[in-house]
Design a protein that fits this description.
- By secondary structure, this protein is α/β, with parallel strands linked by helices.
- The chain folds into 3 domains: 205 residues, Alpha-lytic protease prodomain-like (Up-down Bundle); 81 residues, Cation efflux protein, cytoplasmic domain (Alpha-Beta Plaits, 2-Layer Sandwich), CATH 3.30.70.1350; 81 residues, Alpha-Beta Plaits, CATH 3.30.70.1350.
- It is 63% helix and 15% strand.
- The chain contains 10 helices and 6 strands, in the order αααααααββαβαββαβ.
- A 3-stranded mixed sheet has the order 1-2-3, covered by helices on one side. Strands 4-5-6 form a 3-stranded mixed sheet, with helices on one face.
- β2, α8 and β3 form a beta-alpha-beta unit.
- α2 runs antiparallel to α5 and α5 packs antiparallel against α6.
- It is elongated.
- The relative contact order is 0.09.
Length: 371
């Protein structure tokens, strides 16, 4: 599966390198002879696209290396680094192009368009559209952010090339040169594209919320392992590359479970999750659930009434009330939208402690990590 993905990315990127170098050469010749800054910038933009594909190949090759002593979680994040480099290259190209375009506005020159050159340039628009759609489709199938980013960039390029053709017609039929101003517009589009790619990849490097569907599917898989599992919570997933996750979670099970039963169940959960989702669980934590006593159920309901008064409290879990030893414990999940998460936690804790002065109350503060 991984080998097939790598081959797809390398193959598509290689096609991109060849096509973009050819397009860059054609546009450079047309731009030079027509004295068009917009066409020359378009040519440079194609060269950066070719460079982006080279970076994608290198990043993918490195990311596919197996784990070693110095990198026990593998090299998968190299793809994010590659995407970041692509964003930097595109951003740099846009900034330098903007500077040159501004210079052209201050010191304008008259372009000299040829009909054949314009016709060829118009043809490159369709080539770029094809490349963009091809890259995006392949990128989504291979789950490659780099390919999707390159595809999006190529579609932007087709708009840029089309604008250049329009500028040529404006000059030919109206005698007005909008080359330099078009160059500024192209530069800003390039900058926007580079900044967008940087934002996306840096968010992944910093760590972002796992999509809700993945969490939902994972919880459903865990719940299917045994009817004794009352709930799945505290799902922590760390990403080490495209589709490479390791993490941990907690389950609620009856307080009658022995250590042996817990061990068997935890191992079965880890095995099932890995086979189903390819996610490696480093730990399966346990919350015990009361199996007897109406008093503990009554306490649970009374506490839930208090919790429901707080909009920022999303849920409580891991609830256990030991009536004999006078202990209450549970986790409380507070939304990131809360004005003051710690204040909400302290207020809830204080109210519960006042409700049950004879009990030792232990409330674990949880952030809404997995939703």
């Amino acid at each position: 599966m991984q080998d097939s993905r790598e081959k797809t990315i390398v193959r598509v990127s290689s096609i991109g390198i060849g096509a973009n170098i050819l397009l860059a050469a054609v546009k450079a010749v047309i731009g030079f002879f027509s004295n068009s800054i917009a066409i020359i910038l378009d040519s440079v933009n194609n060269l950066t696209d070719a460079l982006s594909s080279v970076i994608t190949i290198i990043g993918t090759r490195y990311a596919s290396k197996p784990a070693d002593k110095d990198h026990p979680y593998g090299h998968g994040r190299a793809e994010y680094v590659a995407s970041t480099l692509i964003g930097i290259v595109i951003l740099y190209t846009g900034i330098t192009a903007l500077i040159e375009s501004v210079k052209k506005v201050m010191n304008p020159s008259v372009p000299e368009y040829e009909t054949a050159g314009i016709a060829i340039l118009a043809g490159t628009v369709f080539v770029k559209i094809f490349l963009g759609l091809f890259f995006r489709s392949a990128g989504k199938k291979a789950d490659s952010d780099s390919l999707v980013a390159s595809g999006t960039d190529a579609l932007f390029d087709s708009i840029v090339s089309f604008s250049t053709v329009v500028a040529a017609f404006v000059f030919i039929y109206f005698g007005k040169s909008i080359e330099a101003f078009l160059g500024i517009m192209i530069s800003l589009l390039i900058i926007k594209s580079g900044a967008g790619i940087l934002k996306t990849t840096l968010n992944k490097i910093l760590g972002e919320r796992v999509d809700a569907q993945t969490i939902h599917d994972l919880k459903r898989t865990v719940m299917s392992v045994s009817p004794d599992i009352a709930g799945v919570y505290d799902v922590f997933l760390n990403n080490y590359g495209i589709g490479k996750y390791t993490g941990s979670l907690h389950i609620e099970i009856p307080d009658t479970y022995t250590a042996k039963q817990v061990d068997v169940l935890a191992r079965k959960i880890s095995e099932t999750v890995y086979k189903t989702h390819g996610i490696s669980l480093s730990a399966v934590g346990i919350y015990s659930v009361n199996t007897s006593g109406d008093e503990s159920s009554k306490i649970n309901l009374e506490i839930l009434k208090v919790i429901n008064e707080y909009r920022d409290v999303l849920e409580i879990h891991g609830f256990y009330a030991d009536v004999e030893e006078k202990k209450i414990r549970f986790d409380i999940v507070i939304s990131f939208d809360a004005k003051d998460m710690r204040k909400t936690y302290a207020e809830v804790t204080e109210r519960i402690e006042k409700m049950y002065p004879d009990y030792s109350v232990q409330i674990q503060f949880d952030s809404d990590i997995s939703g």
